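Q: Structure for this?
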Amino acid sequence: MQEALALRVRGVVKTFGEGPTAVSAVKGVDLDVHGGEVVLIMGPSGSGKTTLLSIMGALMKPTSGDVWLGEEQITALSETRLPAIRLRHLGFIFQDFNLLSALSALENVEIVMNLAGGRGAGTRRRAEGLLSDLGLGERLNHRPADLSGGEKQRVAIARALANEPSLLLCDEPTANLDSKIGHDTVLRLRAIADEQGRSVVIVSHDDRIRPHADRVLWLEDGELGEMARMEIDPVCGMPIDPEKAAATLQVDDRTYYFCSQGCRREFEERLAEEGRPPAST
Amino acid sequence: MAVNVAQRNFFESRTRMAVTVGGVAFAMILVLVLDGVFAGAMAGVTAYIDMTPFDLVVSQQGVRNLHMTSSQFPSADLSRVERVPGVRRVDSILFTSAFLVTGDKRSLAYLIGYEQGRLGAPPAGADVPRNLGHGEIVLDKRIAAENALALGDYLSVLGRRFKVAGFVTGSVSITNSVAYIRRDDFAAATRQRGIASFGLVAVLPGTSPATVEARVRRAVPDLNVLTKSQFADSERRVISDMSTEIIRLMNLVGFLIGLSVVGLTTYTATLAKLREFGVLKALGAPHARLLGIVFQQAVLSIALGLIAAVAITLALAFALTLADTNIRIAVELGSIGRLGVASLIIAVLASAAPMLRVSLIEPADVFRR
């Protein structure tokens, strides 16, 4: 049985500016994220991933459309109520970790609990427990400057989990980590979804995350599509929506899709070198 | 206990903290030392009034203090004061401001002409002769030292030579010191016969000076009468009024330096942490909490600066006491209190711009790289 909806996005549009200089970053996005589900959103730079993440995270109001977090329609809430929603129902994980440099690892987790009203020894013990579970029991009193990239990201994960949110929003969580640590981070996020039933939305360029996601979505020019429907440009490796391909080429019984005429020309040259001319275009 | 972000931020960079606290302390020391020097000097202004035992003072109508005044009235008028119920005794002194001249050195003094064993005489002490002879003078020990005068040496005052016959201590103030000669020497030098400058009144034990003052005022309406404390207050006010402008100006300079230092350091410290403020905002920190962090950092700068300034000023005051100089720093609680209030105003003003900056942070900027 499928878990209840943790996040529902309906017809979300975000336009920056007005008139002829207006730029639409997100165009009518619909998205459902279920409890315990890991959703990966990929797409080229400037495709609107961060804008969509900000809207889902109650950090930015959409121009139109609605977002529900559980049963709460967060797009209908006033600005003054949004901080409490972010604090108690959302966990954020950033590419640059964004830890507070003057605080220890323990304090970085504890401060978020404090903001939600947590105080005293019980709160401290809970923060210690979260960090210990992530293998940082020996690094509690170290400041971020004294931690490795992987350790910083684990502190950030502990901080994101501090107030037991239903949804984790991760912005390029593996970008500043080496492949082993990045893989370890993705496995942790997967485990959080599986074991704790929290939903995880990851925005990333990192292809290695794909096998661990329940669903992979492709965002391009502000529009969201299922990655399963995407074709891969054989030259540059970019996922292409078949309906929006800049060029196509039929070779034998297979159709190739290209992001540009340049990629198609390069592909034709390769075929010519192999003595396999295309059947048709 | 909650994590104190302001405190952690403040102590994160030792260099920045030292610069901030040092700068604030410097500005506050400027204010405290100036206030202290002034208070130290003012403490000596009423030296004669303080060390002379009397309850009321009678003077020429309109004269309410010693500094830069001249009081003259017939000595015979004091007999009317003597008859007022509650008056134990009345003695008169002659008074003028005069230069004590030694070679080419001149030192301004309140010159008192007194009668032996009467009110107005120098306080009894080891260095004060029981009976002052004609042509003899008692002056402050510090003035004597500055002018290299020892017992038996001569100086000029009121155009006559006087022999140093004794010393008093503690009479040096921001304006002058106190010197004593016989009343008849004073009268002869100034050709004043049957004249008094001030009448010093002692009231009967158990009688209120204020009650007797009212009776004296009714009995001799052509003379001015004040209690000892009124006379001292009036003397202090005259001196302080003359110095208030410069003190205010220097206090303003200290305030502006303090404001600049705290404002600049709080602003740069906030700018340095702007991204972290954005992160806290994105995570859900209430707006007031963020502003509180900025204000608390400013208060920490001010509080530590104030503590350092008071400690350094007290040490300086102690060092000056040991060095036995003419400058005395009296650090008064009132001065520290006023500085504390000014500091709080500085903290509020210095936090305003950084608070505005924090208010303008967009939480979504946290995703920018």
